[in-house]
Design a protein that fits this description.
mainly alpha, two-stranded antiparallel ribbon
């Protein structure tokens, strides 16, 4: 039944993507994070949806007559330089070349997603569509898994689909946390237009929290707690957030198991936890690899190649200041770095880490700058909220990724692209439009529906008219 449903929708989706390249880019994101092949079992499972939608997006852009101006800015420069750096590190890889080239190919697809987000997305409707695709992928999976978690009384352990980019439960948990601010933005934009959308987004936000708990991921829990505190500080809706927090905590209590509690309590004594200290060992070996190969590191997946792991282990005691407790390197198999920072450090060297941190820092601060500039200029509230929520998602990744090998995931590079688009296109266009309106910055905002969408999907857009015009209409 799923196969027939998906195959019936496929021609409609392809037609829409051909007509509007931004739809193809959104579906590119959706297939990358939703993994439709994992949901079907028959003939529909043999179609490579992500490759198909990627090809349609590229061809659609090439055939597009009204291409927006290409502006890569600081974020784009860091991303492209980092990709070029990974190409060089792959040529000098310490891992089997076939393995490193395979992962370079995967990362190339991620960078291509970033590039086509930057090339194709040009206005608010496009940005919102991509964000909806994110929610309908990661958020949809969280809804289903969280409902299973609740139905089982907290006994269901949530994990990702095997073979999927979010297959690991810790990485899946972080993706759930990163989706929360996106839901918050969409709730503010679309919740007032439809009761169904408002309830659906509120429910998804609640279920995302339950899903994070259901993964039993300590990193995901810490990222969610930090995000909650940061979101509370940044938000203008503190009363609503306080109410939601109280309701969620009260609802969560019956589903918190002793196993989950004991697992979270190990955070307080991390140096006594074998799992965590095993990660610290991997961090130290990643550092040793970067010291031995400071420019380009060991290449993709080099630390997990046991001959490399074994060779680095011989120098394990060389840096006594790098505390690892009583933990020692595994003597039978190599391990992943379990940190986006040490992963990049070991695989791409100190130069690669600087470029990667440049990607994160530039996107984070640019998103914050968008919110501040929009607020200072009196721009519509959606622009301020969008910048803040994207900044919060990047913050969640930067914090939660400190204990995960998650550096090259599609989700964060898609967010980089959206921040770039907002900085270079949406914010300047909005400020220019405000300056050209009668009454200028002193105009009174009047909300009108967008004419291009059905009423149930229309966010609140603003046009400005002067106070004198309003007064004359009431005389």
């Amino acid at each position: 039944m799923r196969d027939l449903f998906l195959l019936a929708l496929l021609p409609i989706m392809l037609y829409a993507m051909v007509q509007r390249p931004f739809i193809a880019v959104g579906m590119w994101v959706w297939t990358a994070l939703f993994f439709p092949n994992g949901w079907v079992y028959g003939m529909a499972g043999h179609i490579r949806y992500n490759l198909l939608f990627t090809a349609v997006a590229i061809l659609g852009y090439l055939a597009w007559k009204h291409k927006p101006k290409v502006q890569l800015g600081m974020i784009g420069s860091f991303v492209l330089l980092f990709f070029l750096w990974t190409c060089i590190s792959t040529m000098t890889t310490l891992a089997p070349p076939a393995v490193s080239f395979e992962y370079l190919t995967r990362f190339f697809k991620v960078v291509m997603l970033f590039v086509f987000v930057a090339l194709t997305i040009k206005d608010k409707l496009h940005v919102d569509f991509v964000l909806w695709c994110l929610v309908l992928s990661v958020g949809f999976y969280a809804d289903l898994e969280a409902l299973k978690f609740l139905a089982s009384g907290g006994g269901h352990n949530i994990a990702g689909m095997p073979g999927h980019v979010l297959g690991d439960r810790n990485e899946l948990s972080l993706a759930f946390v990163m989706t929360l601010p996106i839901c918050y933005y969409l709730l503010g934009e679309y919740g007032k237009q439809s009761k169904a959308l408002r309830l659906g987004l509120l429910g998804t936000m609640a279920l995302l929290v339950f899903a994070v708990i259901g993964t039993q991921s300590r990193g995901g829990f810490l990222a969610m707690a930090a995000l909650g505190a940061y979101m509370y500080i940044k938000s203008d809706r503190k009363v609503l957030l306080t109410f939601l927090l109280v309701v969620l905590v009260a609802a969560l209590v019956p589903f918190i198991s002793d196993n989950w509690t004991s697992r979270i309590e190990t955070i307080q004594a991390a140096d006594e936890d074998a799992s965590f200290m095993g990660r610290v060992v991997a961090w130290k070996l990643s550092f040793i690899m970067a010291v031995k190969h400071p420019f380009f590191g060991g290449g993709f997946k080099s630390l997990e190649y046991f001959p490399v792991w074994s060779d680095l282990s011989r120098e394990f005691f060389s840096y006594s200041w790098f505390y690892t407790g009583r933990a020692l390197p595994n003597t039978t198999v190599g391990r992943a770095a379990h940190s986006v920072y040490f992963q990049v450090l070991g695989e791409q060297g100190f130069g690669g880490l600087i470029l990667y941190l440049g990607c994160l820092a530039s996107a984070f601060f640019k998103a914050g700058s968008i919110a501040r500039r929009a607020r200072k200029a009196g721009a519509p509230a959606w622009l301020r909220t969008l910048g803040t929520m994207l900044q919060l998602s990047i913050f969640a990744f930067a914090l939660g990724g400190a204990a995960l090998s998650f550096a090259y995931v599609d989700l964060i590079f898609c967010l980089f692209g959206l921040v770039l688009v907002i900085e270079k296109r949406l914010l300047p266009a909005t400020l220019t439009q405000m300056a050209e309106q009668p009454g200028g910055p002193d105009a009174v905002p009047v909300f009108v529906p967008a004419p291009t969408l059905p009423s149930v999907l229309q966010p609140a857009h603003t046009r400005t008219v002067s106070a004198s015009t309003i007064a004359s209409q009431h005389v």
